[in-house]
Amino acid sequence: MRARFEVNGREVEVAVEPRLTLADCLRHHLRLTGTHIGCEHGVCGACTVLVDGKAVRSCLMLAVQAEGSKVVTVEGLSNDEGLTPLQASFRKHGALQCGFCTPGMITTAHALLTEEPDCDADRVREVLSGNLCRCTGYVSIVEAVLDARAAYKGDAQ
Ligand code: FES
Ligand code: FES
């Protein structure tokens, strides 16, 4: 089957098996390897991308289901060469170690902060509760997200 959708502002058309997940399509067909695959069944959040602005587990979505959608991966959060304010905040707070969970954390937190730039720590914990990190213990991740809120206020990220 053919699937046509937008990825990071670019129209793409891919020939895929109907059973191919969006995660595998992004990584193997489009070479966007910033999207990580951990559990492959919707538990770890490592594969989270934005689909029409919503955080979605790309291992639970088929590539053909993205037809006509706007997909944004961690690579597409900024057109600049530098880090986004949220990424810079992760670095500032040491909110990553091995980095495997980080793209999913960043895309999930980006969706949250875009919708709710005034969210509090409890809300950040609630939303990130579906993203597993085996390294950091989460405290620094929550601090990094909270610290990045200012960048989202009155700013279409
Ligand atoms: S790889 Fe998709 S949720 Fe774990
Ligand atoms: S930084 Fe290693 S899994 Fe989160």
Overall shape: it is globular
Q: What is the strand tally?
A: 5
Beta-strand content bin: 5-15%
Strand order of the largest sheet: 2-1-5-3-4
Q: How many helical elements? A: 6
Helix content: 25-40%
| Low-confidence regions | none
Spell out which ligands are present.
FE2/S2 (inorganic) cluster
Largest sheet: 5 strands, mixed
Task: From the alpha carbons, calculate the radius of gyration and give it in angstroms.
Answer: 15 Å
Mean pLDDT: 96
What does this structure look like?
With 157 residues, the protein is α+β, with helices and mostly antiparallel strands. It contains six helices and five strands. It has helices at residues 22-29, 85-93, 102-115, 121-128, 139-147, 149-152; strands spanning 2-7, 10-15, 48-51, 54-57, 70-72. A five-stranded mixed β-sheet has the order 2-1-5-3-4, with helices on both faces. A hairpin with a 2-residue loop joins strand 1 and strand 2. Helix 2 runs antiparallel to helix 5 and helix 4 (121-128) crosses helix 5. The mean pLDDT is 96. The structure holds FE2/S2 (inorganic) cluster (FES) (2 copies). One FE2/S2 (inorganic) cluster (FES) is lined by residues 37-40, 42-47, 57, 59.
